[in-house]
């Protein structure tokens, strides 16, 4: 490989996706990723940066949230973390830490990804960012940390504000999480309405 080609590798702003698309992070609008890729990626992503005592995927978390919210928000709840397929699952504490460190915040990147999901699956952006979904997303943290993490004073304080949902986590395998995510998407009548990006 020539020196110029090597230099080019360090300046490209796109990545190849599992659906063989180019996701250009510098684009104003990002591409819409197919639901099977979203499901597989979320199923292969462990919550809490893999720090939990058992494998627990973002897909399983999303399926649980989709059953907790009102029916009109269920599809949005299922896809509420789909931005993580584009930008990864970053702990919120790290997001806050880096917020002022760069010209582009991680929140800005997440918003681009969430906008692509909204556009691609015909879900109003305000549904994906619904306070109801955010509330259940915060409440399930209490269940998840009680079942998957060692005890910590922070979570004891946290559960005073955010009551647990009562869900018992099953910790599906990535294959099972992928299957159940896609089944829930179909059950909710989800469909890709746009490939533009």
Protein structure class: mainly alpha
Q: Supply the CATH superfamily name.
A: Hypothetical protein af1432
Figure out the total of helices. Answer: 11
Query: Which spans of ≥5 residues are poorly predicted at pLDDT below 50?
Result: none
Q: What is the annotated CATH architecture?
A: Orthogonal Bundle
Counting DSSP E segments of at least 2 residues, the number of strands comes to 2
Domain module count? 1
Q: Give the N-to-C terminal Cα separation.
A: 32 Å
Question: Would you tell me which CATH topology applies?
Answer: Hypothetical protein af1432
- Write down the secondary-structure element order: HEEHHHHHHHHHH
What value does the Rg take, in angstroms?
A: 18 Å
General shape: globular
Q: How much beta, percentage-wise?
A: under 5%
Order of adjacent strands in the largest pleated sheet: 1-2
Mean pLDDT score: 90
CATH class: Mainly Alpha
Report the helical percentage. 40-55%
């Amino acid at each position: 490989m020539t020196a110029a080609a090597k230099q080019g590798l360090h300046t490209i702003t796109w990545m190849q996706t599992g659906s063989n698309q180019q996701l250009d992070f510098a684009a104003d609008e990002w591409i819409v990723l197919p639901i099977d890729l979203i499901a597989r990626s979320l199923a292969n992503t462990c919550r809490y940066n893999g720090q939990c005592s058992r494998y627990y995927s973002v897909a399983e978390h999303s399926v649980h949230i989709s059953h907790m919210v009102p029916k009109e928000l269920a599809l949005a709840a299922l896809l509420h973390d789909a931005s993580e397929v584009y930008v990864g699952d970053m702990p919120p504490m790290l997001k806050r830490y880096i917020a002022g460190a760069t010209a582009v915040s991680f929140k800005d990147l997440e918003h681009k990804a969430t906008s692509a999901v909204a556009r691609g699956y015909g879900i109003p952006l305000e549904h994906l960012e619904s306070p109801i979904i955010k509330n259940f997303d915060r409440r399930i943290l209490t269940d998840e940390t009680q079942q998957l993490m060692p005890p910590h004073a922070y979570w004891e304080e946290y559960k005073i504000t955010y009551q647990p949902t009562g869900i018992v986590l099953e910790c599906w395998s990535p294959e099972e999480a992928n299957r159940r995510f896609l089944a829930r998407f179909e059950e909710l009548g989800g469909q890709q309405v746009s490939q533009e990006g």
